[in-house]
Prior knowledge:
Mean pLDDT of chain B: 73
Shape of chain A: globular
Number of domains of chain A: 1
Helix content of chain B: 40-55%
CATH class of chain A: Alpha Beta
Oligomer: heterodimer
Strand order of the largest sheet of chain A: 2-1-5-4-3
Distance between the termini of chain B: 93 Å
GO biological process, one term (chain A): Golgi to vacuole transport
Structural class of chain B: alpha+beta
Mean pLDDT of chain A: 81
Order of helices and strands of chain A: EEHEEEHHHEEHH
CATH architecture of chain A: 2-Layer Sandwich
Keywords (chain A): Cytoplasmic vesicle, Golgi apparatus, Membrane, Protein transport, Transport
Radius of gyration of chain B: 40 Å
Number of helices of chain A: 6
Protein name (chain A): Adaptor related protein complex 3 subunit sigma 2
Distance between the termini of chain A: 19 Å
Subcellular location (chain A): Cytoplasmic vesicle membrane; Golgi apparatus
CATH topology of chain A: Beta-Lactamase
Largest interface: A-B, 70 and 80 residues
Membrane topology (chain A): Peripheral membrane protein
Strand content of chain A: 15-25%
Structural class of chain A: alpha+beta
Shape of chain B: extended
Largest sheet of chain B: 6 strands, antiparallel
Largest sheet of chain A: 5 strands, antiparallel
Amino acid sequence: MIKAILIFNNHGKPRLIRFYQYFAEDMQQQIIRETFHLVSKRDDNVCNFLEGGSLIGGSDYKLIYRHYATLYFVFCVDSSESELGILDLIQVFVETLDKCFENVCELDLIFHMDKVHYILQEVVMGGMVLETNMNEITTQVDVQNRMEKSEGGLSAAPARAVSAVKNMNLPEIPRNINIGDINIKVPSLSPF
Amino acid sequence: MALKIVKGSIDRMFDKNLQDLVRGIRNHKEDEAKYISTCIDEIKQELKQDNIAVKANAVCKLTYLQMLGYDVSWAAFNIVEVMSSSKFTYKRIGYLAASQCFHESTDVIMLTTNQIRKDLSSPNQYDTGVALTGLSCFVTPDLARDLANDIMTLMSHTKPYIRKKAVLIMYKVFLKYPESLRPAFPRLKEKLEDPDPGVQSAAVNVICELARRNPKNYLSLAPLFFKLMTSSTNNWVLIKIIKLFGALTPLEPRLGKKLIEPLTNLIHSTSAMSLLYECVNTVIAVLISLSSGMPNHSASIQLCVQKLRILIEDSDQNLKYLGLLAMSKILKTHPKSVQSHKDLILQCLDDKDESIRLRALDLLYGMVSKKNLMEIVKKLMLHVDKAEGTTYRDELLTKIIDICSQSNYQYITNFEWYISILVELTRLEGTRHGHLIASQMLDVAIRVKAIRGFAVAQMATLLDNAHLLTGNMQRMGICEVLYAAAWICGEFSEHLENPMQTLEAMLRPKVATLPGHIQAVYVQNAAKLFATVLKSQEGNTDSTAAQETSQLMIDRLPLFVQSANLEVQERASCILQLVKYIQKLQQKDVEVAEEVSALFAGELNPVAPKAQKKVPVPEGLDLDSWINEPPSESESEDEQPKAIFAKEEPKHSRPRREEVDEKELAKRREARKQEQANNPFYIKASPSSQKVYQEAPGVEHIPVVQIDLSVPLKVPGLPMSDQYVKLEEERRQKERAEKKKKEKKKRKEKRSGRGKKHDSGPESEEDITPAHQVDIVTEEMPENALPSDDDDKDPNDPHKALDIDLDKPLADSEKLPVRSHRAAEAPKSPTEDGDATSQEPKKKSSKEKREKKKDKDRDRKKSKEEKKKKKHKHEEKGEDLLGGEAEEPVVQSEETNEVAAPPTSTSAEVSDLDFWLSNAPVPSNTQETATVAAAEAAPMPEATSGIAPDSEPDEPKDTEMEETKSSKHKKKKQKKEKEEKEKKKKKKHHHHHHHSDGGGEEAVQNGTVEEEEPLPPMSNYCLLAENSYVKMVYDIQGNLQDGSQVVVSVIFENKCDSFLKSMEFNVLDSLNSKLQRPEGSGPHDGLTVPFQLPPGVSNEARFVFTVQSIIMPQKLKGTLTFIVKNEDSSTHEKLDFKLHFTCTSYLITTPCYSDAFAKLLESGDLKCSSVRLEGVNMPFHHLLARICFHHHFSVVERIDSCASMYSRSIQGHHVCLLVKVSAQTVSIDAKCDEPTLLGNVLDEIKQTFSQC
């Protein structure tokens, strides 16, 4: 079982949190902080597993994470999951994000947290791995997005126009924080 | 209205959407909280509007804020509103928000039940999908109960997308509503073979999660998973299954044996590291479960270790980490194979990755030996110096102590070295583990007598340099060692070279800054030291020195009297007064030293940590009973005359207890004396020192090897453990040289010196004799200590509720509208046991059994006679079933309210599994689970045969031989006439047997028949028809699920040399009984038997009949047509038969409790009848077993030669028997609510006994 999925950036700012076990909001934040603290002090060339923090789970739980450019993807899992399998799953998830957002960067996750959730929902459900085939995941996500579009989306045209206007005099938005090295970071894991 | 909508959409134009919110937060970095609170106000406004789009937008923003840590539960109702929107876009937002912030105590959840149900049945699969996803995150017990059925239906949805989600969510439903597990399980099992790989994977996932927590309930699925494992190519599925097998093997060692080969193949063939790793892991689990009794698996261990080495040597840190992790599992059972890779593991200690270093440390623990301990610890000490982080350093420290102290200091040859290591460790800055070092110091000093002198010297130095330890506030953790130092110096002060100096050191003013509990020890031990000093000074005839010492005490102690710590204060003032008194006496020139030291005389022995817990509660001790009469509520008794009666009651009980007391008084007094003698805290007249040495016999007489004089006993400053490493090397070398010269002497030394440690370590280690003889005092335990307590399980574990027996057929009360399935088959006689080549008795731990097994193995090697082997197998089988059935009564008692299922079914499943686990060649499979199950079982042969050809080189050849033999053996057993012979043979060997089989098994299931004498084999299969081509035997069983159905199991055996095919089974229906034919076929069509028979092979098929009245026996005529195919020709043949439906076959073994039984008899609804059997010459329990087995009864109660039995017909008639035996006459009184049925059953029973 997967107990939690956390995505935060290099400064510990949460970009997506998904707990499959109930924790109150302040506890969730504490867990994020603790996890960030554990993960961030590790070099890039050390292994991707750590014994879970004190807050989440006990000895049966492990943190399995990957670090892509500015983001950490952390899965907290128990012993019924295969460690290497979860590493592959993170890779699948990130590659799916890359496909759905076309060159995903941290900004996509910041502004489209809901969409990231919808993608994640096609990968993991209730703490259990639902689908590992990237094509299948993207197909389902696409169909649902098309449905949303046909319904007019959340914000119909006028609202979008307004937000375009609102956008005009904004201070510069950081762009091009691409997760470019997505494939370089994959260690010598054989294809799954 | 229209205006309102327009107004709403205009408003919306100026609402923030999620992106605006995020942008806003990013633009207000300084006053984020303030900005967000205004946003929340806006959101609250938006939520008040009627427009669902506005609400959805607001909820979407709330989801984001929830991520930032804001509590949004106040909007729960609005979330539900958005969830119930008809538009997918909004619905999805609603469910997402709900899944993020709903939990079990969210009260609006109960409002969602109907909405979710509606969404689940929505024609749009994505509505359903979204609902399922959301539900998986916030399902509550209520939701689970209400929606279980809807989700069950979705498991068979046409879209795989929905199926896989429905399957996955079932796990959550089971967790919240365990009652749903049994009804849903058959369908879940079906999904294991779903055509869609995603659904299959989901089902595997769910079952693996379930099985991980309660593996024993899923053992029967092993064959199915085995099939999946050998056929699946999906690595996810494979990994899960392999992990599952890892959980199952500890329960069933035979499974492990079956697994090793396919797993080894996978290890060799796969390219995916994740799969490889899991395979290795499971092979390790298998090897652990097989324990050390299997020498021929050393190849597998080697393979694992070798593969793990490759992982560890890999540059990928992840693989390295996992390799070490798996290695530590091997270490537990096969330490030697890991030890050869010591170099690699030591190398990992230098790794830059802390996780890897920690894993390597774990491994080191199991790798030390007498030889390398010093070397390894030296290396670790270097790491301690280098380590940066305190956590890692603390970890190192605990590991060093763990490694050294493991199994009672087994590997330490030189305790001086160890003490210096401990002293060196005290130099660690800021460690939390001061108390750990302290307790080690105490432990070693107390238990290793020979080391006390050295330890005391070291501790005195420590005390002298206490300022080094306490100088820095950061080091407060380490000052704990001063506690140990002070105590050791005080307690063993006779070893001190300069006690006066130490005494002064202990009374320094600086001591007052130490924590209270340490000060207290200082004060107390200063007093002990004082006593020692006095003693030495009084001998010197110079009384001034002694008086000076007293003066020193009197000067310094007031400092402690003022201490804020109560303990310190109390001890100090007490001792101060004592010293003052001593001083007075000294001034009068009275010799006091003797008396003062008498204060601290006697030795303190170590007490085992569990000793207190293990003290048995004295007999008759009832802490709840009043010692004195309870005080009456009111003092004025005359007001309440009734109180007298109340008070009298306890009086009644007390004399009774006293009676018992008197009888046992002497016994108890003896026991108490014993206990006191063993209680270190009990002050006794003469300290019994023998007790302490009981465990180490004759220690006193062992010549103590002199310590090399070059060892400096007093190390200036702090000692260096490195010196000892060098010295030890030299010593060993010298010893080795000496040994060569003085063979004789060495032998003597070894014999006497090594004492009880002979068993430890490999031979080369035996050569290393300890530097000085060590007497490790064992810890004391109370006499007749209680056996070790079991570790209790966490009562809050949600998975406990899922410990449900899945093999039992569904009872009526829990039946759900699922595809009805056959009743499980009854246990069959000898035929089924197959060749359980070397099954290990399950769930048995007694040594006796193990010995027996050894015997068996030996036997097996000696004689290859077939007969003998058979006997063994029977024996094993009997044990196996006995073990397997042991838990049955528990299960039953749990379900008293339920209509209890026949216990036979479990055993049938067990025996199916047993059969699968035995490697019998498949065609002769008489135990095949027939028609419905045939589809399932059919591919199994492939799996089995797939492994067979490339048999492992190290597999003993005789397994194959046994296989063939046993198949013959099985065929033979089917033949009735031979069975008789067998029976006779077996009777000769009764003293070997616990149970033979069949009948015995049945008897045990009923749980009432004791094993008095083994039972002869029994079979319910009787001959149906036979000709030169084919032979048919059959058995009829009632179907518990359906009151109008019986299942006829027919075993077809091919007796000729030709192939039999196209077998068709047809029966001429009567008005009362009809053969169930597939829909669409006419009433006279035959049923195709779903298999073909090669020559010499038998197989079983099942046919379902519907019956209306069951009170009369009846016969049905039928025909079997088949084609006999030779190489060149084929002929049609037919065989007529008569199926005899006895009334017995309508009875179902149903357990009954004696109270229920009595009620039933009292009810008066039952008609009575009786029968007498003359000349029955068999033991009573055989008789009962026969009735149980052949007529499907269960024993309710048995008293001497009288027993009550019960059974129930498929239509619910109760049949009660009272069986009495006197001489050779058996009388059976029977009651039943249907007299005709009863009459027929009794006739049948009579017939059974007339036959034998």
